[in-house]
Design brief:
Elements lengths: L5 H34 L1 H38 L2 H36 L4 H16 L1 H16 L4 H24 L4 H26 L14 H32 L4 H37 L3 H34 L9 H15 L2 H17 L2 H26 L2 H33 L1
Helix pairs in contact: 1-2, 1-6, 1-9, 2-3, 2-4, 2-5, 2-8, 2-9, 3-4, 3-5, 3-8, 4-7, 5-7, 6-7, 8-13, 9-10, 9-11, 9-12, 10-11, 10-12, 10-14, 11-14, 12-14, 13-14
Length: about 450
């Protein structure tokens, strides 16, 4: 990423991330399809209620690891290998302890949170069983995401992609076996998730220690200092919040959707899974952009930063316009994948309403995402955190006001309002920072 074509450096780095995210989202969707077709609409609704809750926790860990990846990229670009290992070991020690504490908290709060969000009473037992199993495997999710993010920080996105792809295929096979053949019900779906995460984390750690000596922490490499911890938190906290913004919003607005009934809940959450598939491409490019900017800042090559930003923006714009057109036209057919028979018509209708409304707003989401990623790469984490909080507040408040009147489409309107509220601010922030870099270059 420090030399050669800016376009191909970013595309070749982003492509494995995009494909890996595709398989990650694919197994999330397959989860819903298998549960919906083998266990019926009731179990699909239970998994749908669980999805935003589990996603907040899992993607918070993923976001924190992505933030550390930016720190790794900067230190790698600067050539300071001692600092690189200090950052890696501090992040790993802190992240492991934090994840174990988070696991205990999630297990204790699962049922109270479901009741607080007004989950239909008939869904609480199944949803609780699913979430408790998923939360028990959080440590494996963290370990995979941490080592994968560290690898991406030094420019290796291929290994995490191959590992994630293999684990996703394994997850689908186990899901079909546990749910479709072993008769384990909704617990089988959760068990498949935990086991696939266990395998992916083990393979990723083994790969680092056997193939990437630079990142293999040996005796004498382990360091944990207060100054590095503060730096790690600065990079990881804002990134974690930004990454989970969509899922925090869905979780908090779940309280608005739940009273609409199990079919509406199932349709809405199935549609958001499809939305995740659409967003995964520019998510991958955004990760590549943050890493590209961080490495070139560390190497003191500001002239490549602006080129990287322009490349990412144009690429994401072309993609999202095309995806939005397809999403709007094929929404009913896409939703039909999740359920079969006349009993699923209301689920399909609810999901179609959400997808067609959101299709109009995806371009705003893309603009916000690419600028937030640029700010992360530039080290402006405070702005990213404030922007994320503003988005959450606007989305949740408007959802509670509009959903009782407009139904499912109101969640899309509220989300777009949050994006619009911060879009011009972050555009201005990125423009000012890029202007400063140009002045330094001169």
């Amino acid at each position: 990423m420090l030399t050669g074509s800016v376009f191909w450096s970013m595309i070749l780095f982003a492509l494995p991330i995009v494909i890996g995210n595709f398989f990650l989202q694919l197994y999330v969707i397959v989860d819903a399809v298998i549960v919906g077709r083998y266990l019926g609409p009731h179990s699909l609704a239970a998994v749908s209620v669980a999805a935003p809750i589990s996603s907040i926790v899992v993607f918070f860990l993923f976001g924190g690891c992505s933030g550390i990846s930016v720190l790794i990229a900067q230190t790698f670009g600067s050539g300071d290998m001692e600092k690189l290992r200090a950052a890696e070991s501090t992040g790993l020690i802190f992240g492991t302890v934090f994840t174990l504490v988070l696991t205990l908290a999630c297990l204790a709060l699962t049922e109270p949170v479901l009741r607080w969000t007004r989950t239909p009473p008939e869904l609480i037992e199944e949803t609780t069983a699913y979430l408790e199993l998923v939360f028990s495997g959080l440590i494996f999710s963290f370990l995979y995401n941490y080592f994968a993010s560290v690898l991406r920080g030094i420019g290796n996105s291929r290994a995490p992609f191959l590992i994630q792809t293999g684990a996703s295929c394994l997850h689908i096979i186990m899901n079909l076996f546990f749910v479709g053949h072993a008769g384990m019900g909704i617990r089988g779906s959760a068990l498949a998730t935990v086991l696939s995460q266990t395998v992916s984390s083990a393979i990723c750690i083994l790969y680092v220690y056997r193939c990437v000596p630079l990142l293999a922490l040996r005796r004498g490499n382990w360091k944990f200092t207060g100054s590095m911890l503060r730096l790690t938190l600065n990079y990881s906290w804002a990134s974690a919040l930004q990454t989970t913004i969509v899922y925090i919003g869905r979780f908090l607005t779940q309280g608005c959707v739940n009273p609409l009934g199990a079919d509406k809940v199932a349709g809405y959450n199935a549609a958001t899974r499809v939305e995740n598939i659409v967003m995964m491409t520019y998510d991958g490019i955004s990760i590549a952009l943050a890493t590209f900017i961080a490495q070139n800042l560390g190497a003191r090559q500001p002239y490549r930063v602006k080129s990287g930003f322009k490349t990412a923006f144009v690429t994401e714009f072309i993609y999202i316009v095309s995806a939005a057109l397809v999403l709007y036209a094929e929404a009913p057919a896409i939703m039909g994948i999740f359920v079969s028979g006349s009993g699923g018509s209301s689920i399909i209708d609810a999901g179609t309403q959400y997808l067609r409304t959101m299709a109009f707003y995806l371009i705003i989401s893309m603009i916000v995402a690419v600028h937030q990623s640029a700010l992360r790469g530039l080290g402006e984490f405070r702005i990213v955190m404030i922007v994320s909080l503003i988005q959450i507040v606007i989305r949740v408040v408007l959802s509670f006001v509009l959903v009782p009147v407009l139904g499912i489409p109101a969640t899309a309107h509220a989300t777009a309002a949050g994006w619009l509220a911060v879009m011009f601010w972050i555009i201005s922030a990125v423009s000012k920072r890029l202007k400063k870099l140009r002045e330094v270059q001169r």
